[in-house]
Amino acid sequence: MILLTGLLIQALAGPFPVDALAFPVNSALLFASIAGLWVLYREKPDGAVCRWLSSGKTSIALLAAFLGCCLLLGLTRQDGEAGRFPGLRDICHTWWFILLALTLMANLFIVILSRRRKGARFLLNHIGVLVALAGCFFGAPDHQVYRTIVTKEPVREAVGADGAITGLPSALALDGFEEELDPKGNVRNYISHLDVDGKKVVLKVNHPYRLSFNEDLYLTGYDRENERPQHCIVEIVRQPWKYLIHIGILMMMAGSVLMFAKGAAGKREERQ
Length: 272
Fold this sequence. Notes:
The structure is a single chain. By secondary structure, this protein is of the alpha+beta class. It has helices at about 1-15, 25-45, 50-55, 55-75, 95-115, 120-140, 240-270; strands spanning about 145-150, 155-160, 165-180, 185-195, 200-205, 210, 215-220, 230-240. It has an eight-stranded antiparallel beta sheet with strand order 5-4-3-2-1-8-7-6, with no helix packed on it. Helix 4 runs antiparallel to helix 5, helix 5 runs antiparallel to helix 6 and helix 6 (about 120-140) packs antiparallel against helix 7. It is elongated and about 70 Å long. The protein starts with a helix and ends with a helix.
């Protein structure tokens, strides 16, 4: 039913307007959703909606559908065509996926409220999943990626995929560059030495540098036309909700450790 409703909205309204839910709209929606579900559970805990959301069968069905969508998103390399039915690459912009994610989070919230006396392991795992999902979902509209070409002259601006120009909190300048070659002479790795407002920073591939509270620098390319590269390409990723996601992951890790410890303790008791 959820998927059919989402497909119908997709056909009538087109892709989900992610950009329209940027801060502070996403924060307001998050708090409104929490408040609404809390009132619903408090006023009608035995109602049809709460009973359906707290059902184990509902949880299994929603998790299976959500994980299936995530697998499709992660494994496909297809480029979706723009229009009312984007390809798998744009699955996060479809109404049916949005409704599925919202329903799954509502399910987790009601399950936590209805079974909150099950102990720390249960709460850490379920709240951790909910917090991580909420951070990913509600933080998506605020996630921005920009790129800039860094040369020896300081740069203070970057350009987004849509051509929008944004200012940077710090000036970036190329202070040096290194290439690591394999035995055949092919480039195996490259390293940029940057000057960030007078601070010396070593930027490596897959080793981001935290520029500010919500901005990270990634090294994505360099000047291949000259023997001595004159510039490098730096990607600036703004993700203000990443800490909420990290908190959720840490909670799940703590819950997993408690489950492992409980299991190990039980086996020792059985042996004794």
